[in-house]
């Protein structure tokens, strides 16, 4: 699993192999069973962030009608960034749960700050990752908003085909903003 991290660091930094190795020795990698909650909606905010080495993590919330609404799926080589840790009185607005047995890098923001002092390139890498993530998220949201449900499904087929077999269809439908029945009709039309 550490090879994946080293490949990722090589992509975003100019750290030499020895520095990359030292960083991977300090990073915490944990295994989580399918069904494990990383965060629960209504729970306390966390200072942890995650990077998926293996597996699939679903982000969702329960709306006012008691219905689960899926907002994202995180799979291999995707960071799960949390933004409400600065507001300790605010509870989490969503849940994160492992859809599969997963292997994640678990980073604590305080220890991450300490690592930045030793490896300034690591801070650059993190910033580059966040910029890339936010840029992609903005693009995906803009595309999602202006797309029809059928176009959203076609985008999933082109960009995240693995989700079609990795997540239950009712959750994929929720992610696309349609009912499971509508998703079935869309799938029939796009065959």
What does this structure look like?
Residues 30-116 form the Cyclic nucleotide-binding domain. Keywords: Activator. It comes from Oceanobacillus bengalensis. InterPro entries: cNMP-bd_dom, cNMP-bd_dom_sf, RmlC-like_jellyroll. Pfam families: cNMP_binding. This protein is of the alpha+beta class and 191 residues long. It folds into 2 domains: 2-146, Jelly Rolls, CATH 2.60.120.10; 147-191. The protein is 48% helix and 21% strand. The chain is built from 8 helices and 8 strands. A 4-stranded antiparallel beta sheet has the order 1-8-3-6. Strands 2-7-4-5 form a 4-stranded antiparallel beta sheet. Strand 4 and strand 5 (68-74) form a beta hairpin. It is globular and about 55 Å long. The relative contact order is 0.16. The mean pLDDT is 88.
**Number of E strands:** 8
Distance between the termini: 36 Å
Radius of gyration: 18 Å
List the domain count as a whole number.
Answer: 2
Structural class: alpha+beta
Sheet-strand content, in percent, reads 15-25%
**Which CATH C-level class of the largest domain is it?**
Mainly Beta
CATH structural fold name of the largest domain: Jelly Rolls
- The whole-number mean of residue pLDDT values reads 88
Looking across the biggest beta sheet, what order are the strands in? 1-8-3-6
Please give the structural blueprint.
Layout (H helix, E strand, L loop, with lengths): L1 H11 L4 H10 L1 E5 L4 E3 L8 E7 L2 E6 L5 E7 L4 E2 L14 E4 L3 E7 H10 L1 H27 L2 H11 L3 H4 L2 H8 L3 H10 L2
Antiparallel strand pairs: 1-8, 2-7, 3-6, 3-8, 4-5, 4-7
Helix pairs in contact: 1-2, 3-4
């Amino acid at each position: 699993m550490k090879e994946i991290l080293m490949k990722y660091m090589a992509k975003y930094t100019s750290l030499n192999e020895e520095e990359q190795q030292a960083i991977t020795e300090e990073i915490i990698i944990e295994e989580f069973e399918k069904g494990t909650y990383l965060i629960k909606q209504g729970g306390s905010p966390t200072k942890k962030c995650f990077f998926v080495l293996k597996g699939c993590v679903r982000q969702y919330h329960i709306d006012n009608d008691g219905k689960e609404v899926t907002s994202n799926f995180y799979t291999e080589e995707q960071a799960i960034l949390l933004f409400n840790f600065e507001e300790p009185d605010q509870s989490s607005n969503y849940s994160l749960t492992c859809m599969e047995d997963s292997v994640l890098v678990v980073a604590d923001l305080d220890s991450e700050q300490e690592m930045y002092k030793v490896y300034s390139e690591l801070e650059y890498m993190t910033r580059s990752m966040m910029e890339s993530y936010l840029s992609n998220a903005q693009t995906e949201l803009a595309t999602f908003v202006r797309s029809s449900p059928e176009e959203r499904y076609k985008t999933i087929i082109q960009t995240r085909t693995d989700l079609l077999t990795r997540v239950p269809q009712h959750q994929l439908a929720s992610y696309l903003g349609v009912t499971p029945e509508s998703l079935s009709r869309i799938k029939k039309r796009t065959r």
